[in-house]
Amino acid sequence: xxxxxxxxxxxxxxxxxxxxxxxxxxxxxxxxxxxxxxxxxxxxxxxxxxxxxxxxxxxxxxxxxxxxxxxxxxxxxxxxxxxxxxxxxxxxxxxxxxxxxxxxxxxxxxxxxxxxxxxxxxxxxxxxxxxxxxxxxxxxxxxxxxxxxxxxxxxxxxxxxxxxxxxxxxxxxxxxxxxxxxxxxxxxxxxxxxxxxxxxxxxxxxxxxxxxxxxxxxxxxxxxxxxxxxxxxxxxxxxxxxxxxxxxxxxxxxxxxxxxxxxxxxxxxxxxxxxxxxxxxxxxxxxxxxxxxxxxxxxxxxxxxxxxxxxxxxxxxxxxxxxxxxxxxxxxxxxxxxxxxxxxxxxxxxxxxxxxxxxxxxxxxxxxxxxxxxxxxxxxxxxxxxxxxxxxxxxxxxxxxxxxxxxxxxxxxxxxxxxxxxxxxxxxxxxxxxxxxxxxxxxxxxxxxxxxxxxxxxxxxxxxxxxxxxxxxxxxxxxxxxxxxxxxxxxxxxxxxxxxxxxxxxxxxxxxxxxxxxxxxxxxxxxxxxxxxxxxxxxxxxxxxxxxxxxxxxxxxxxxxxxxxxxxxxxxxxxxxxxxxxxxxxxxxxxxxxxxxxxxxxxxxxxxxxxxxxxxxxxxxxxxxxxxxxxxxxxxxxxxxxxxxxxxxxxxxxxxxxxxxxxxxxxxxxxxxxxxxxxxxxxxxxxxxxxxxxxxxxxxxxxxxxxxxxxxxxxxxxxxxxxxxxxxxxxxxxxxxxxxxxxxxxxxxxxxxxxxxxxxxxxxxxxxxxxxxxxxxxxxxxxxxxxxxxxxxxxxxxxxxxxxxxxxxxxxxxxxxxxxxxxxxxxxxxxxxxxxxxxxxxxxxxxxxxxxxxxxxxxxxxxxxxxxxxxxxx
Length: 874
Prior knowledge:
The protein has 874 residues and is mainly beta. The chain has four domains: 19-100, Phage tail protein beta-alpha-beta fold; 105-203, Immunoglobulin-like (Sandwich); 208-306, Beta Complex (Ferric Hydroxamate Uptake Protein, Chain A, domain 1), CATH 2.170.130; 307-766 and 804-873, TonB-dependent receptor, beta-barrel domain (Maltoporin, Chain A, Beta Barrel). The chain has seven helices and 54 strands. It has a 22-stranded antiparallel beta barrel. Strands 13-20-21-16-17 form a five-stranded mixed β-sheet.
């Protein structure tokens, strides 16, 4: 063999085979995870000498893909890589030319619902893997998605349900009805992580959906799995002092939260001083909670939105639930009025602590004085849902609820030759709401919801005093009452237009009539031998009119960037004074590799309503009042940013977020202004307007799967206010300032029957103003003067310069459930405040004259509360 042939053979062995050409049968191996298509092309060129030619203006190769191809023919490998993205490939010479396939499009629309009940599912995901595009169902279970003509199927998924593949070829113009099966009914269908990860990109920024699983993770205190308790356990949210029942979000006051029940505002959201919420958990379908990036469709409050949607009622068959415990009982029934056409759901709850008063709150002193007290609540819901046609549906719902507290005192009852004296005081407060909704589908891309609703909150108190000496005929009979009310009547229309997968436009408008009756007082003296004196004052009402318009666009700017851009504008007319505002909203999410994402938002909010609080605690006696010519509307501007992470198996989620919020025209009673005898008619002369600011950071780690679930949330925050003439005009910690707040929630499933839950909350002490000294009073005859030689406290020091001790509480519950042939029975055992921590409800300064000392006394009202509840579901 010649030397030339030997050298040629060595060269043939040493050179890579790909330089001698390739064809469609060339076997290739490509393994990449979450990398751009451009990198896939680069790998094929490097390993096999296959060159690609394309125009970046026509073909987008920035989309990320996970490829796991082993030893496949080149043509089949390229089909698997490029077909899902509508990219055509063709060999021209020694290179492959890439072009985009332009397909005609069509729109698929319809509803997603539960297969058993027909209940529409809110926030279900509809996703096209081929186009890497998707959408979610709106608040009424409706979706619309525009697809390429050759799309053959979609994936439909919802938390707690088995994902389903929906065939869409040949669907035509009619709407589709997608039914999903709960996971506990059938074996779960496995869907690849990449599909789930991409489908989650359609979730709205700034929105936290409180799912039924989140609610069930909370302890079922007094037998209730409460949605508001789950919201309070989130970072950035606190629930007020034990027994306060308030909702404070990112340093805001309770009146700055918009709480909606089927679209109707609720002005007081708790029963029994915060132990229960007004939302019966048996009929709650979904809860959306916003504390940052508020969509433009919401307005009227500064701090948060809680949007509660109720069940529509079972369209297939009748069933219900009933429970009875130591403190309260409840029942719920739902079913079809006309199968697959009309449904209803009705529920009711009532506590019966008033029926147990002899054992709970009654006492008799040694000298015969009797003290009696009882408190109870009730509420009821009714909702009717009717389908007129494929395009039209109507919903009607009503709610009524009330709390009542009665205090009775009698002295001299068992004694001879003495006076008989009785005092009776009654407090009652509650809500009424009514909602009428009409859903109409104009075409597959345009959905409309027209709503009319009415809401009322009222507070009523009366007292009677009777004094009757045994030896004389003279008697004293006094009667007084106080009544306040807040009413809203709303009409609005909301439209949703989805031209394509990258845009969802929402726009609409409405009008609101606010009626304020901040206080009506009446006093009567019916003493014997005297003519009855009847004095009433403050009976006037103030009417304010509000109009609003909004528009927002949920826009997928890039494959990794999604934004919500909106504008809310409104005007308010009251007492010949008009206020108008423009409120821009912006939220954005940028997705990073490995399921990391960045979020940011800016929100401007306006609030025309104010809540006058009479002291350091929030109570039903607080007054709703409007902005006036003297008191301007409140404004807030909030910026927030954060980083979020979901593990590949979706087992854990992590979030870290910071925020800064400025509030203008917040109000406070003037320094040293007495609340007693302050006439509601001139309340705006008694207040001062100022500025507030709150800022901080929130961190949360949640475990979402497995038999052990729960989350840990921590908040570091500051909340401050500044008012002219108060605290020297400088910022001071406001009463909602809680420097540290830690929440731990745990849910453990034991076998088939037991479900254990626990939550522990720790919070820093609250700011408190204390006197810096005292002096002897000298009478001057004024209405608010003190008698001579009585020590008067000096409150001239700095506002809220002290803090109470830290507060913490543990709540636990255990539920045993067993399925029978026709029903499911369960026992729930719970402990509220399990280790009987005495957290303060309010504070009293006590003077010990013997020791010549003065000290601060903390009054607690909610000790350890055990409960046992038996329930059946049929």
